[in-house]
């Protein structure tokens, strides 16, 4: 096969992750985590660290970014339910738990996740109220 030579980027082009700037780079890169998260809805924030979730479930974290900065996360399934955990890479940021949008039994999904995690609802700091669309605080451990 003949090799086709592709020229390098134009000198004035900014990195593609910095956003669409007419004339500065025709490409605008988006995070795979952000693109994937569009298929998920936030259902809870966890009181446990990301490291504990990753170790328990033996997940591999992926690193990316969103409009607010660096993010780490992992997508996985448990008994046919698709989940995503993610966390912004700032100190003291909560771990977010999301469930695939098409899955209707959100409470059941949260309980399934917590059961496999080996925790109960005390591991939650916020839980999504599906009627209001707001995260509601969950009473902390006593």
Question: Features of this protein?
Answer:
7-stranded antiparallel sheet, elongated, 142 residues, alpha+beta
Radius of gyration: 19 Å
| Secondary-structure element string | HEHEEEEHEE
Estimate the helix proportion, in percent. Answer: 10-25%
Q: What's the tally of helices?
A: 3
Our measurement of the CA-to-CA distance between the termini, rounded to an integer number of angstroms, reads 68 Å
Principal-axis shape: elongated
Mean pLDDT: 86
Spatial strand arrangement across the major sheet: 2-3-4-5-1-6-7
Beta-strand portion reads 25-35%
Contiguous low-pLDDT stretches (5 residues minimum) are none
| Class inferred from helices and paired strands | alpha+beta
* Major beta-sheet overview: 7 strands, antiparallel
Based on DSSP secondary structure assignment, what is the total number of beta strands?
7
Compile the SSE list and pairings.
Blueprint: H1 32-37, E1 40-46, H2 50-57, E2 62-66, E3 69-78, E4 81-88, E5 95-100, H3 106-117, E6 124-129, E7 134-137
Antiparallel strand pairs: 1-5, 1-6, 2-3, 3-4, 4-5, 6-7
Give a quick summary of the entry.
18% of the residues lie in helices and 32% in strands.
How does this model look, in words?
The chain has 142 residues and is α+β, with helices and mostly antiparallel strands. It is built from 3 helices and 7 strands, in the order αβαββββαββ. It has helices at residues 32-37, 50-57, 106-117; strands at residues 40-46, 62-66, 69-78, 81-88, 95-100, 124-129, 134-137. It has a 7-stranded antiparallel β-sheet with strand order 2-3-4-5-1-6-7. It is elongated. The chain starts with 31 loop residues before the first helix and ends in a 5-residue tail after the last strand. The mean pLDDT is 86.
């Amino acid at each position: 096969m003949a090799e086709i030579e592709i020229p390098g980027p134009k000198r004035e082009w900014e990195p593609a992750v910095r956003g669409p700037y007419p004339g500065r780079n025709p490409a605008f890169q988006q995070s795979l985590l952000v693109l994937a998260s569009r298929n998920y809805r936030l259902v809870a924030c966890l009181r446990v660290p990301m490291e504990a979730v990753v170790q328990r479930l033996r997940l591999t974290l992926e690193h990316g970014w969103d409009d607010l900065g660096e993010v780490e996360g992992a997508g996985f399934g448990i008994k046919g339910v698709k989940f995503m955990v993610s966390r912004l890479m700032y100190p003291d940021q909560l771990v977010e738990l999301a469930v695939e949008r098409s899955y209707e039994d959100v409470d059941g999904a949260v309980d399934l996740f917590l059961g496999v995690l080996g925790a109960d609802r005390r591991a939650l700091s916020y839980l999504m109220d599906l009627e209001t669309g707001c995260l509601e605080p969950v009473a902390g451990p006593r």
